[in-house]
Design goal:
CATH class: Alpha Beta
Largest sheet: 4 strands, antiparallel
Number of strands: 8
Mean pLDDT: 93
Number of domains: 1
Distance between the termini: 48 Å
Structural class: alpha+beta
Number of helices: 5
Strand order of the largest sheet: 1-2-3-5
CATH architecture: 3-Layer(aba) Sandwich
CATH topology: Aminopeptidase
Low-confidence stretches: none
């Protein structure tokens, strides 16, 4: 008998997704990034309390793609017109189940359809290996201060189209 995992569906962001995406963001950072960042850094990056109105506005601007797995929102990622990926998060309870890979494949398809030349993102230390496995290379190391805490990340980039006419 074949026991294939349930498919991961990618859909567009819908109004009302904001609280669920905040949970994905929070659990992704708190559960998955603990190996590379300390509790103070994690708390600065993903505080327990937040302004739901500001968060909702941010999600509406980013208009991310939402990954659903086993009937629940399991991750989300955006792709800006410039090729910048601002948010790329998988729910802490859904890691290593193909959600991130499905989102990345979707971003690549959309980028190709849009004739985007390259993808780039400021990637956490935790996600750096994942992005490398998907063909991104480190362009530079960043040190950012967030709510008084210093965090390290990397600007990573991947060429999608070379010399394509726009």
């Amino acid at each position: 008998m074949n026991h294939r995992p349930p498919p991961i569906k990618i859909r567009d962001f819908r109004s009302g997704d904001e609280p669920t995406l905040r949970e994905v963001f929070f659990t992704s950072i708190r559960n998955l990034a603990a190996g590379e960042y300390n509790l103070d850094q994690l708390t600065a990056w993903a505080p327990e309390s937040y302004d739901s109105g500001l968060w909702a506005n941010r999600m509406q601007v980013l208009h991310p793609f939402v990954a659903e797995w086993e009937g629940r929102v399991a991750g989300y990622a955006d792709l800006q017109e410039s090729g910048y990926i601002d948010h790329f998060y998988v729910h802490g309870a859904c890691a290593r189940r193909g959600v991130g890979a499905a989102l990345m494949e979707h971003l690549h398809r959309v980028a190709t359809e849009r004739r985007t030349q390259e993808l780039f993102s400021d990637v956490s230390l935790t996600a750096e290996g994942f992005f490398q496995r998907h063909g991104f290379v480190v362009e530079r190391r960043n040190v950012v201060t967030l709510r008084g805490m210093v965090l390290n990340n990397a600007r990573m980039r991947k060429q999608i189209l070379s010399g394509a006419a726009v």
